[in-house]
Design brief:
The chain has about 475 residues and is of the alpha/beta class. The protein has a domain of about 170 residues: NAD(P)-binding Rossmann-like Domain (Rossmann fold, 3-Layer(aba) Sandwich). The protein contains 18 helices and 13 strands. The chain has a six-stranded parallel sheet, sandwiched between helices. Strands 7, 8, 9 and 10 form a four-stranded antiparallel sheet that branches. Strands 11-12-13 form a three-stranded antiparallel sheet, covered by helices on one side. Strand 7 and strand 8 form a beta hairpin. The radius of gyration is 22 Å and the shape is globular.
């Protein structure tokens, strides 16, 4: 029997195209019923046309594609789904994300991405969580057995709210783990020397840690689901690559930090590794705003020294909008619809749950003892096994204490932000912002509270009214 896969936020056409393309290349899933849902009819129609063209090009029309626009049709889109893929961005780039960047600037608070932590991440969570919980309640009624694959940021807060505030089976998915090891080996000139990289990663989303990295060794015998990441849960054996990685990274950063030297795009991560001992999974532009060390008005030279791209997310959004308009007609007419399976875990999870081969992923799940030195209510990013019974986290062991401590500075904000969205208590919003590492390093308490109030006002009375109780 064909599975039904519903894509929420299907107007994110390029990302939806990649995920749908992966589905259509799967022998297990290519005859799926694909339901596309978005509140924007024009973007939804673009995605529908792209999906139909992909269906013809990759699966000889074996899939069934339907589109549903507007909140009034959401339950129909969800009905009888086996999998629901969430990529919604509540409020969109304009006006919501622009507000999240522009208002903090008035207080001297600068951001790079603003979708995971910090003021931008907190307010994105406050917008997103009420909507995704409405969707979860509908899923409980019309597709209670479905798995929700959450790709929406802020990953830890949105996924945590779903796992704590609903009965929906949920896993949060990101692609930073898959790209972590290829990135560092390639950038340090080790890719050609390392024949069989095996590794262990655990932590939280966007701040998981590359705990072990070896060439060869014993690995868990589960396939990677076609993601091509080449990794596995490390047990023992093989050549330890970390000493050479640390040496080359330190030398590369030392050269790049010299006055007038060319910068590279991983300077913050290398510096974190130099001081804390381990490489972190997500990019330097993200991690620059997750700790208090990098974006500092009192030390403006750090921005240039470490090549930190302020306002990077708005810049990317503008570029993506322009690029979509450039290629839109070619994609919709089917002239640029070749596809190779991506590193995203989504299609592999659906295959495994639908009866295909078991696989290993890294997923975001509640910390049921998987990392003993992080809280049980935290959402952690750990190895997970996936089979017909679903997604199950794997025990990873305690993190090095300094890594757990850095994670906790983010977990504090995530837990308070999630609780604020679940309880609708404005005082918890302030407290989440008070504890944010970057915000607290730049602003005093009264200014942080005033900034939050300005953001509530800028996002409008409907949004502000949801968080009226302190």
């Amino acid at each position: 029997m064909a599975v039904k896969i519903t894509f929420l936020g299907a107007g994110s056409t390029v990302f939806a195209k990649n995920l749908i393309g992966d589905v259509l290349l799967s022998p297990v899933l290519k005859n799926a019923h694909i339901a596309l849902y978005d509140i924007d009819p024009r973007r939804l129609e673009d995605s529908r046309r792209a999906a139909e063209n992909l269906n013809r090009a990759l699966a000889a029309g074996a899939a069934r594609v339907c589109a549903y626009a507007g909140v009034e049709n959401r339950r129909q889109a969800l009905a009888a789904s086996d999998f629901v893929v969430n990529t919604i961005q509540v409020g969109g780039y304009r006006p919501a994300t622009v507000i999240d960047f522009d208002i903090p600037k008035k207080y001297g608070l600068r951001q790079t991405i603003g979708d995971t932590l910090g003021i931008g991440g907190i307010f994105r969570a406050l917008r997103t969580i009420p909507v995704i919980l409405e969707i979860a309640r509908e899923m409980e009624e019309v597709c209670p057995g479905a798995w929700l694959l959450n790709y929406a940021n802020p990953m830890a807060m949105v996924t945590g709210a779903l796992l704590r505030g609903s009965a929906v089976k949920t896993v949060g998915l990101c692609h930073s783990v898959q790209s972590c090891v290829p990135k560092i080996l390639g950038d340090l000139g080790l890719a050609g020397e390392v024949k069989n990289p095996v590794w262990k990663i655990a932590g939280i989303n966007h701040m998981a840690w590359l705990l072990e990295l070896r060439d060869g060794g014993s690995v868990l015998e589960l396939r990677d689901g076609g993601s091509g990441d080449g990794g596995s849960v490390l047990t023992d054996g093989g050549r330890d690559l970390y000493p050479e990685v640390r040496r080359r990274a330190a030398e590369k950063n030392a050269r790049a930090r010299l006055p007038g030297a060319a910068k590279h795009d991983d300077m913050v991560r290398y510096e974190i590794m130099r001081h804390f001992g381990y490489y972190v999974t997500e990019s330097s532009e993200h991690n620059a705003e997750y700790s208090p060390y990098w974006i500092k008005a009192a030390f403006p030279g750090l921005i240039e020294e470490f090549g930190i791209p302020l306002d990077e997310y708005p810049r990317r959004c503008e570029a993506q909008i322009a690029e979509w308009e450039r290629v839109r007609e070619d994609i919709l007419q089917g002239t640029e619809l070749t596809h190779r399976r991506t590193r995203e875990y989504g299609a592999g999870i659906m295959e495994a749950v639908a009866g295909g081969e078991p696989m290993r992923i890294h997923g975001n799940v509640l910390n049921r003892g998987f990392i003993p030195n992080l809280p049980a209510e935290a959402v952690v990013e750990v190895p997970c096994l996936v089979d017909s019974l679903g997604v199950q986290g794997v025990y990873s062991g305690p993190l090095p204490p300094q890594c757990a401590a850095l994670n906790m500075t983010n977990v504090n904000v995530q837990l308070l932000g999630t609780e604020a969205a679940l309880s609708r208590r404005r005082e918890l919003v302030y407290q989440a912002a008070f504890l944010d590492p970057h915000t607290a390093a730049e602003l005093p308490l009264d200014s942080i509270r005033a900034l939050c109030e300005d953001l509530f006002a800028a996002h409008g009375p409907g949004f502000s009214g949801m968080y009226g109780n302190s």
